[in-house]
């Protein structure tokens, strides 16, 4: 008999972001596979999850869960009570925190351990908390889920996690949402950005140090030097911070154009990715690299790095660069000058993206849930 799963979605932010796409994609796929589901969420999301997973028991927490500190406190005391109330056999925490006094098996997803290598210099309290919570999860969770082999290996190396208690479950991508765009879709996005058909290099993500945006700006400036029709640079997305971004932007020559449109709607992303000359995501490290996969699914030529999990996602279907400005400049210039290479990458990227699905991810998660239940039961009988 399949276990009854309580997924704690209370950490999903209002803007959804990568965590929201993971939770939504996974829940929909689990539902389609007939999983016995309950969902804990913030009140504002209750109707959303009732629509996403009809028939699942959706439990909305207190209104104060929108505050992070309150949510973390509730997770310790309130979530175990919800698990008892819904009769859960296993609790899935889709990010690094967990209730330390849970009386049921727990599965915790650790998306990455990049903060151990590159701590946030302006938020030492948050960095310290995340590192401590990650170590606690590695020690106390029944099982861990990592979204890539690279992240699994880093959990073992940096945190000392038991490799026998870690399951790898790649993220999926919604191929209906992230699809090859029509000409009308690319024109719509281009016009909304004020580009009206002009070429552009696309970036989507948070402005935080590991995303390497300052070096992308500097590399793009060097790649555009001397070009009669240089592409614009569009830095889409929001959240996070990196003091070096403004410093790098201050060096951009007046004849070059940088756009910062903020968050784009989901419906605009295929046109944004698929309409780009190049999608450049030269991160210093990722636990998975969901924007890379989403851009690939939209048939975009992608430039990224060999760091972390990114080669597991991109394979031979993307172009790679070192993360320094000179490397980015050289790689971007080569792609700008080679339309046939860009077309080859676009085709290969779309084909490779079909190997990733939320259905496959859900199967790997279900296997992890069952292992957690069996493992927990075995410890209780000894």
TrEMBL record:
GO molecular function, one term: glycosyltransferase activity
InterPro entries (UniProt xref): Glyco_trans_1, Glyco_trans_4-like_N
GO terms under biological process: lipopolysaccharide biosynthetic process
All residue ranges annotated as the Glycosyl transferase family domain in the record: 196-350
Domain Glycosyltransferase subfamily 4-like N-terminal stretches: 17-176
Gene3D superfamilies registered for this protein in UniProt: Glycogen Phosphorylase B
Highest taxon above the source species: Bacteria
Keywords, alphabetical: Glycosyltransferase, Transferase
Protein name per its UniProtKB record: Glycosyltransferase family 1 protein
Source organism of the structure: Actinomadura darangshiensis
Higher taxonomy: Bacteria, Bacillati, Actinomycetota, Actinomycetes, Streptosporangiales
């Amino acid at each position: 008999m399949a276990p009854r799963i309580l997924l704690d979605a209370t950490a999903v932010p209002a803007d959804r972001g990568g965590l929201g796409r993971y939770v939504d994609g996974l829940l929909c796929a689990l539902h389609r596979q007939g999983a016995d589901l309950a969902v804990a969420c913030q009140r504002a999301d209750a109707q959303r999850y009732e629509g996403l997973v009809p028939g699942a028991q959706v439990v909305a927490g207190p209104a104060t869960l929108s505050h992070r500190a309150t949510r973390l406190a509730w997770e310790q005391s309130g979530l175990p009570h919800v698990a008892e109330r819904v009769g859960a056999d296993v609790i899935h925490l889709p990010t690094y925190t967990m209730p330390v006094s849970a009386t049921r098996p727990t599965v915790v997803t650790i998306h990455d351990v990049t903060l151990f290598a590159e701590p946030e210099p302006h938020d030492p309290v948050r960095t310290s908390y995340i590192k401590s919570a990650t170590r606690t999860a590695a020690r106390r969770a029944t099982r861990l889920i990592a979204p890539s082999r690279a992240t699994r290996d880093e959990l073992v190396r940096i945190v000392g996690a038991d490799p026998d208690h870690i399951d790898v479950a790649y993220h999926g991508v919604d191929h209906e949402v992230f699809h090859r765009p029509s000409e009308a879709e690319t024109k719509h996005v281009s016009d909304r950005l004020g580009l009206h058909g002009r070429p552009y290099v696309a970036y989507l993500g948070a402005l935080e140090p590991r995303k390497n945006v300052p070096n992308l700006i500097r590399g793009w400036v060097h790649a555009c030097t001397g070009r009669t029709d240089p592409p614009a640079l569009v830095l889409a997305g929001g959240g996070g911070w990196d003091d070096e971004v403004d410093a790098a932007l201050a060096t951009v020559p007046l004849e070059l154009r940088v756009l910062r449109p903020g968050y784009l709607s989901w419906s605009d992303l295929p046109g944004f990715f698929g309409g780009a000359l190049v999608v450049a995501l030269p991160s210093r490290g990722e636990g998975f690299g969901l924007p890379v996969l989403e851009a690939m699914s939209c048939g975009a030529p992608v430039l990224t790095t060999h760091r972390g999990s990114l080669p597991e996602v991109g394979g031979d279907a993307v172009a790679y660069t070192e993360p320094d400005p000179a490397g980015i400049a050289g790689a971007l210039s080569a792609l700008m000058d080679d339309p046939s290479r860009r077309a080859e990458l676009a085709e290969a990227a779309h084909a490779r993206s079909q190997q990733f699905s939320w259905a496959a991810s859900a199967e790997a998660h279900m296997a992890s849930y069952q292992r957690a239940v069996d493992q927990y039961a075995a410890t209780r009988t000894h």
